[in-house]
Amino acid sequence: MDDHDRFMCRQRAQRRAQQKGQKLDSLWGFENWDCDGREGHHISRKKYGDALIAIPVSMHRELTRRQLEEHATEGPDDSNPLERLGRFLLGLTDIVECLADFLRRVGNALIAAARRGQRKLCESDYSLTQLLAFMGALHKCLGATLATLAHEIGE
Ligand SMILES: [Zn+2]
Predict the structure, then answer these.
(1) What is the whole-number distance in angstroms between the Cα of residue 90 and the centre of ligand 1?
(2) DSSP secondary structure code for residue 31 in this structure
(3) Which pLDDT score, from 0 to 100, does residue 118 have?
(4) C-alpha of residue 94 to centroid of ligand 1, in Å
(5) Is the model more confident about 54 or about 126?
């Protein structure tokens, strides 16, 4: 899937969400994160690896959609370490894109608040502390997983 295909795929997903009556700024559903529950997500998909992270339900929905619609179709051997590492890296890429989109959103919100004359954080529509906790959990999980995968493909 190239960049154009990925763009079109996401446009179709956005349209499907709108047709269901969901009013989303993005497919990540950031506006729901504060009240979303958390779900366990297998970064590589369960059959390709055990790395699991707790994430907001809305984020999980989009990561799952990407795994199913945007990642390479399934290979013949889900125990192949190269396939498993490849799947993990695609899952990681999606998470990093989510974080980049989130940070851009926060940055723009802070600048907009500054333009309104604010000098301190007040109520925003999502919590920076949640993001920081999430990034900490992600960092811990990814470090352990990358070490394991590096060992597997080196054997
Ligand atoms: Zn998942």
Answers:
(1) 13
(2) G
(3) 86
(4) 12
(5) 54
Cα 120 to ligand 1 centroid, rounded to whole Å: 36
Residue 153 is predicted with a pLDDT of 76
Report domain extents, the chain: 3-154
What distance in angstroms lies between residue 26's CA and the mean position of ligand 1's atoms? 18
Q: Tell me how far the alpha carbon of residue 4 lies from the centroid of ligand 1, in angstroms.
A: 25
Predicted local distance difference test score (pLDDT) of residue 155? 65
Question: Taking the model in full, what pTM does it have?
Answer: 0.82
DSSP code, position 54: E
**Residues with beta carbon < 5 A to ion ligand 1?**
41
Q: Of 3, 84, 9, 80, give the one whose Cα is nearest residue 42.
A: 84
Question: Is 32:58 a contact under the CB 8 Å cutoff?
Answer: yes
**Residue 7 alpha carbon to ligand 1 centre in Å:** 21
Torsion on CA atoms 45, 99, 32, 62, rounded to nearest 10: -30
Query: 110 pLDDT band (50/70/90 cuts)?
Result: confident
- Which positions ≥6 away from 63 have C-beta within 8 Å? 41, 55, 91, 94, 95, 98
